[in-house]
Amino acid sequence: MSTHDPARLPPVTARIALIASARYPIREPFPGGLEAHTAGLASRLRRRGHDVTVFGAPGSDPGLRVREMAVLPPISRAARSDVGMPPEWFLAEHHSYLELLLALSRERGRYDVVHNNSLHYLPLALADTLDAPVLTTLHTPPTPWMESAVRLGDPQRLRFAAVSAHTARAWAPTGARATVVRNGVDTAAWEYGPGGGVPVWSGRVVPEKGPVEAIRAARLAGTGLRLAGPCPDRAFFDSCVAPLLGDGVDYLGHLDHRALARLVGDATVAVVSPCWDEPYGLVVAEALACGTPIAGFARGALPEIVDPLSGVLAEPGDVEALAEAIRAASLLSRTDARRHAEATCSAEVMIDGYERLYRALAAV
């Protein structure tokens, strides 16, 4: 049963500036979990009656009513001659966020809260120029630019949420005291599936997500595997993943939301094989919402998201143990997995958490 209880939250709405990625459009198929999270957060907040303005990359879904951030104007020949010029993508992001923060500093009284859901340092560094408090969701381990901004920022002006207790602990030495608000998924869109099919692996096809380890484990388990997700590193896919395909292991491409939800709901098990300390793992929440138990590596936030009724975790990097976890997870109750998602990682639970933070910030 869901822990969502609207009656415990005062019926107050907020005017929220939601800052997203300036680099990746918020549209399906989503480039990554951060974009999917931003879309879900904006939609759910609006359903609760909040006035949400999303600032995102050009090309985002028109249905999300995104205010597109500025693109980098042509760089002069003189500037290009600077031998210390950083990569153009870096300049483009810097320009987008600088323009946005300067614009927000002039829109005084327009917003109650600025929610920084990006991975950029400028919303932290320029928080003092805004008249609204800035809440930053920490989606990753500490990064150099953001860590610097956190250490130099005014603790009275900056507030933080973290997507897991693991991530909150990682940031604590920088001075960022974060309230844990786990990412949530729409349990109506990620609906309960019948299961019984070939195990699934989903996410960005990159080394740190462990698709190679998942394939090897599935072969040892004798179950086969279906993989789905974007391939930002084509060289890695061609050299390391493609040679392992065939004989029951298939790559289905970068699927849209509905197709991916059907695939995950049809699977007996979702294999989650991070080769780094995953800050959260949105694919875990998506699978559990579909009633699909998890077989994964116990790294990062996975041990706090997956309980014994919803998944089986193996020692990180142990492919043989992951194969055993795939077999064991296939015996778990799909109903228990779904209930765990509703109680701990649904969109409703997530929005409850953010509403409490918004109201506390707006009252400061």
Automatic annotation (TrEMBL):
Alphabetized UniProt keyword annotations: Glycosyltransferase, Transferase
Chain ranges of the Glycosyl transferase family domain: 202-333
Domain Glycosyltransferase subfamily 4-like N-terminal: 31-188
InterPro entries given in the database record: Glyco_trans_1, Glyco_trans_4-like_N
Record bears the keyword Iron: no
Residues making up the signal peptide according to the UniProt record: none
Lineage top rank: taxon: Bacteria
GO molecular function, one term: glycosyltransferase activity
Pfam families (alphabetical): Glyco_transf_4, Glycos_transf_1
Entries under SUPFAM superfamilies matching the protein: UDP-Glycosyltransferase/glycogen phosphorylase
Protein name from the UniProt record: Glycosyltransferase involved in cell wall biosynthesis
Organism per entry: Pseudonocardia alni
Lineage: Bacteria, Bacillati, Actinomycetota, Actinomycetes, Pseudonocardiales
